[in-house]
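Could you please consider the sequence and fold following this short note?
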Amino acid sequence: MARIAGVNIPTSKRVVIALTYIHGIGDTNAQTIVEKAGLPVEKRVNEMTDDEVSRVREIIDRDYTVEGDLRRDVAMNIKRLMDLGCYKGMRHRKGLPVHGQRTRTNARTRKGKARPVTGKKK
């Protein structure tokens, strides 16, 4: 089992797909990493040699912010907005949608389960 950036990536999948299991690496970045490492696209993780795994690991460490560092950066950015008291920070603090979505209906993911309001019936 290959361990890259603190994540056990699945062994039976292709390398391009398996790299997307790392937080901060999507389809495009995974494709770029495989090209930089000089691996064939159809290669599977369990077919990789230790040298190839170390090449991929080195590319990720050198060029990308992933996993814990990325999560910490995102959390610090959100905390900064909340401390500033700007509009986006207030929306984060209240647990409401941040990017201008409507909240009269369809905001259940951010707002949580609907709570009944007494005296609402007509």
